[in-house]
Amino acid sequence: xxxxxxxxxxxxxxxxxxxxxxxxxxxxxxxxxxxxxxxxxxxxxxxxxxxxxxxxxxxxxxxxxxxxxxxxxxxxxxxxxxxxxxxxxxxxxxxxxxxxxxxxxxxxxxxxxxxxxxxxxxxxxxxxxxxxxxxxxxxxxxxxxxxxxxxxxxxxxxxxxxxxxxxxxxxxxxxxxxxxxx
Length: 182
Known about the structure:
By secondary structure, the chain is mainly β. The chain is built from no helices and 16 strands. Strand 6 (64-71) and strand 7 (74-81) form a beta hairpin.
């Protein structure tokens, strides 16, 4: 564990298991932090004082992270390259991002966005922030989602119905996995 007097927000283990990423207010701000298990050290990954970064998700190879960045202009989904610490904004300025995860194909992502009212959508985005960007709404009423690259599926819970659902990202076939989850 990474010792701190601050609060932690959504800790996620690195794919290699040798560390993790988490949001924390330990510095008085809300940046994203990395934890290295071997050295038992933490380092601040993001450093903008006017910006909170949270809901991190790792790329399968552990070289990049997507996370929600909140500032005065709203919520964006950013991707951070860990080697260079360069950031790239993946979402559009009018997207109201709740969370994002990596998709199953290169340069693909799943964004959860708030639409009119409290409605939410899970959107599959290919080649974001490029002229080749495409978007496809997968689920309306999304609560949480997790991608399974091995089966090319997304598992999700919905605001509209109880249960854990699965959607095949290639065929679009959906089925109820477990009925008693809210």
